[in-house]
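Q: I'm writing a short methods note and want an example of a predicted protein-small molecule complex. Could you take the sequence and the SMILES for flavin-adenine dinucleotide and return the bound structure as tokens? Please keep the output block clean; save any remarks for afterwards.
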Amino acid sequence: MSGFDTEVLVAGLGPAGAVAAAAAAAGGARVLAIDRRAQAGLPVQCAEFVPMMLGGDTPAVRAARVQDITTMDTYVRGAGPDITPDFRGHMIDRAAFDAALVEAARRAGAEVRLATPLRAVAPDGTCTLADGTRLRPRVLIGADGPRSLVGRAAGMPNRALMETRQMSVDLPGPHDATDIFLRPEIAGGYAWLFPKGGLANLGLGILPAKKALLKPLLDALHAELLAARRVGPRLARLTGGLIPVGGIAGLAARLGPTQVLLAGDAAGLVNPVTGAGITPAVLSGRMAGRAAAALIAGDAAAAADYAEEASDLFGPSIALALARRGEILAASAAGPVTDAALRRGWIAYDDYWSRTPANALWEVKEPA
Ligand SMILES: Cc1cc2nc3c(=O)[nH]c(=O)nc-3n(C[C@H](O)[C@H](O)[C@H](O)COP(=O)(O)OP(=O)(O)OC[C@H]3O[C@@H](n4cnc5c(N)ncnc54)[C@H](O)[C@@H]3O)c2cc1C
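A: Understood, no commentary inside the block.
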């Protein structure tokens, strides 16, 4: 496919980009999908939990499933657990998941090129790849993650990010809960222990200004859990990455004649409290891919429709999470954070969901 035959260029082949490429190709568009990574999904930068509902319509979840999760166990400042029953989902092998989605994009007819970074996006929509290839796609889908080059070029960068660090540790026995640790010192974030068969992902996310604390806090939590014989000593893998926590960065814009659509982390669709972004990446990727195919087929309203539908779907829960995140950051700036404030800032507790002006919209859209 030569550069100027490309109707739809998808930048990034994480879940958002792979699903977008598949949907656009299935809708009849000529699609080129690129990723700077040499292998889909590697290195893994994820705690690998997905909610049950994603498995229902995404075969890649079943292909990559490692174990099921039934509850969420929350520990506030060491006390607990407070058990959230029926918090069902799956732990997946994220590399296998991403690889399955990329394979599905190929099968749908998208041309997939790995080890192919997007180097620049000009104001007229011209895209330059690292090898010097220049393309002017009619639709450019930015699915290139938290620091999206496409999003920045189109004036829609992510406004806030969370820093993370995660290790894989041995798990002495079976566990079917996602464990959450809320502590005042984990400013603007939390720690997690997610079981994955004989291993577990033990990680922590924190405000960028506190990045230097990631290692000592995670090492201390590991030592604490080791002493309680809840995890083993072996560190199988160390990873990390950025999580957008500033809310929706933007969904659609134009660069000259090129229509830009953002999806997944590039669009800031992650929940700013939990950091969960796989489900919105898959759902928004599918919507953006369909919109791209519709645009190519002549439906000029498809970009605005995508922006509206994605805002309707993700906006209310993101707005509530932003409000709660804002409250807890304000509380920690004002003085010692109470246990009640930690609970109000986490989805396991009724107070998180309680009515406030900030979440009135959410309550209208999604009645309890
Ligand atoms: C430590 C950690 C733990 C997490 N745990 C969970 C969890 O348990 N559950 C959950 O739901 N979410 C979790 N998340 C969030 C989740 O991983 C993301 O929301 C999800 O990956 C978003 O998918 P995406 O396709 O939008 O972006 P990504 O998966 O980030 O994919 C973006 C792709 O774009 C590529 N790319 C970037 N720039 C370029 C470029 N210039 N040219 C070409 N390619 C480019 C990258 O290589 C990458 O493959 C976690 C995140 C982190 C960091």
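A: Remarks, as requested: The domain at 3-66+91-159+246-313 is CATH 3.50.50.60 (FAD/NAD(P)-binding domain). The CA atoms of residues 76 and 182 lie 5 Å apart.
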